[in-house]
Amino acid sequence: NDLGGVRLCLPFAIHDTHSKLHLTSGVHHVWGAQALAYWRVRYIGVGSDLQRITRDQFLMASLAQEVKRSNLLGNPARLFKVVSDIASSLTTDNRLSQGALISLARGVQGLKLSQVHFVQVPVVAYPKNPDWVQWAPNATSLFRAIAHDRKLPARHRGGHHAHPRAQDRTATPESSRGSASPTSTSTSKPSSPAPLSHLSKKYGGISAHANVCRDAGAFAGPLGGR
């Protein structure tokens, strides 16, 4: 709502009674409540959380494009309003104050959309349940590189996504009922764009510069009628 809404581009109509979202196909300008409902939509496509993550990446890209278009980061009054609302909705450590958040936002003001990537944690099939997945071995390397601000490692060939019907439950042999979903991770490097070249292709994702109207693949499957 602080941004003035965000654009959604739907290849198919959505009628989801669980999220209470009903939108026709085509381009829509939605506000906070509908954007949140779209974020939560699960019962379309094949009902996979991996597909939902893909749709959410396009929503995040659309948000990033709106931030750029509206010059939010260059407007101190609007930026303070957004940061204040964000801070009231999050629990952070003591060092991440509103002032620190504002400094962080202004620090990426010159960042290009093509330098912001949304990637998925690499996953593999979970042998005990064909509808579940678990993090791939190279997921640890991905998180370690992000934590230490290093160039992300190349993705191994074995880290491809599991079958699209997988419900994206994180599972381990010790806990086959894990319910945490592999999350979509965003990362950026304002001063060194080279390490991010083709990052989204390696890990399965998009850059913030992506065409948000080209997400038909995230809707494919019998539950979505396609």
Indicate the radius of gyration in whole angstroms.
18 Å
Structural class, by secondary structure, is: alpha+beta
How many beta strands in the DSSP annotation? 9
- Major sheet, described briefly? 3 strands, antiparallel
Shape: globular
Helix and strand sequence: EEEEHHHHEEEHEHE
Mean pLDDT: 77
Helical stretch tally: 6
* CA(first)-CA(last) distance: 32 Å
Strand order of the largest sheet: 8-5-9
Detail the poorly predicted runs: 158-195
- Which percent band covers the strand fraction? 15-25%
Percentage of residues in helical conformation: 25-40%
Secondary structure topology:
Blueprint: E1 6-10, E2 14-16, E3 21-23, E4 26-30, H1 32-40, H2 49-69, H3 76-89, H4 98-107, E5 116-120, E6 123-125, E7 133-135, H5 139-147, E8 184-188, H6 199-203, E9 205-207
Antiparallel strand pairs: 1-4, 2-3, 5-8, 5-9, 6-7
